[in-house]
Amino acid sequence: MNVLVVGANGQIGKHLVHLLHQSNEHHVRAMVRSEEQVKQLEENGIEAVQGNLEGTVDEIAKAANGCDAIVFTAGSGGHTGADKTLLIDLDGAVKTMEAAKKAQISRYIMVSAFQAHNRENWSEAIKPYYVAKHYADKMLVQSNLDYTIIRPGGLTNESGTGKIAVGENVQRSTIPREDVARTIVACLQENKTIKHSFDLVSGDVPISEAVKKLN
Amino acid sequence: MNVLVVGANGQIGKHLVHLLHQSNEHHVRAMVRSEEQVKQLEENGIEAVQGNLEGTVDEIAKAANGCDAIVFTAGSGGHTGADKTLLIDLDGAVKTMEAAKKAQISRYIMVSAFQAHNRENWSEAIKPYYVAKHYADKMLVQSNLDYTIIRPGGLTNESGTGKIAVGENVQRSTIPREDVARTIVACLQENKTIKHSFDLVSGDVPISEAVKKLN
């Protein structure tokens, strides 16, 4: 698959670009904000394109042109202002969905947030961020895209274990960013994950096996 | 009709409560934030209920219990922080939609913002507010509620003229808050406005006539 990674310079994004670049089955195009980031990626032999989530849908569609899938892993993580949360995590995300349709891309993977579907479990400290993620997810479910929504628990920079737990509601826990990236790749390879949304934390089931068993 | 006004203490809300209270065809229940506001309204012979858009759907459903319609005219108007915009104008609004379903209320009127449906026409200064209104409107359209979405132009405190212009896209202009409130009442009385969304500014067509001609 030809995969556009939106938020390629983010912490999960970097892992994901690396994995896709190494894979024999996929080709990656990294969407990043600045020309400088484009240059850096290209110097490492990675296709890169400049794209701005505060720009137009047409611009994003152009950046996505020719891809088979979009992975959205951009975002503020709740630490920027709520204005950017609205503009990037919600409207920016929905623009990429509209761009997917425009560019006739059907596969779409969203990196959401743990329990974003359950209002009562939203952390008080970053509630506005949860609101944005919740409605971006809702818009995706109501789109006609072949979506998968991944809601990872607390992100760590530890090395991945390759083993996870997934489900509609799993116990709050952590997961290395590397394993989130691996799970995204596994979802791209497993069509059973289409139209599924799930919480994701570290666990004891190998990733490829875990995503196959989603229901 | 028995109408719950959410945001009854707002500037449009006050006009609306007054109009509904005076009408022979409707009964109004004002939802406000504080106990003190409830008391003040009750002293004026108006039914009032305390409700918090940052509370639970169940609480709002309880406040709405027995009503036939909900009018949402709460909100920050873009001048509070973007965090409150997310919590009130978007998630708070959607909670009232969920509460409507829970309380088996089918009629729902949303006071939105001029051109909230067209991203390219969003004012740069209050763009996060527009994002919140846009997605609240989207969620309403995708609900099964009998909605009407009213997108008024620049709000003024002048006396109403009783004459308006409505349409999918009308030229940017202003409208007295009093006329917005009158238009809401006219929509409650005209079922042809169900499943319609429209821009609203001052014009030269009497309100009841204008809302009848929506298509």
UniProtKB/TrEMBL annotation, chains A, B:
Highest taxon of source: Bacteria
One Pfam family per UniProt: NAD_binding_10
CDD domains from the UniProt entry: SDR_a5
Record-linked SUPFAM superfamilies: NAD(P)-binding Rossmann-fold domains
InterPro entries named in the record: NAD(P)-bd_dom, NAD(P)-bd_dom_sf
Domain NAD(P)-binding: 7-190
Name of the featured protein: Uncharacterized protein YbjT (DUF2867 family)
Species annotation: Metabacillus niabensis
